[in-house]
Write a structure and sequence with these properties.
alpha+beta, 4 helices, 3 strands
Amino acid sequence: MNEEINILKPRLIIPVGRLAIAQFIECTKLEQVIGRKFRAHRAEQIFDLIPLPHPSGASPWHKIPPGKQLLAKAMRQIARHSVIVDLCEGATRC
């Protein structure tokens, strides 16, 4: 993954699920990371990290409190992130 990050030089990474999140930050409880934005450093790159829960049907976490509210907060943060705003500028739909 370090090589990909070094090549792409992302400004935003959105890890989905606990395993993906744990590649970047400690994730003992989803409640501690979902709905928050983190500044991450990896492969000599600095970028924002906005974790999301895995949408698996095996866990209702993202459908019940507090997961539902934290997921909504994370989605708002993604929508307002400068990377997404830049992508949407001039687009007819975003």
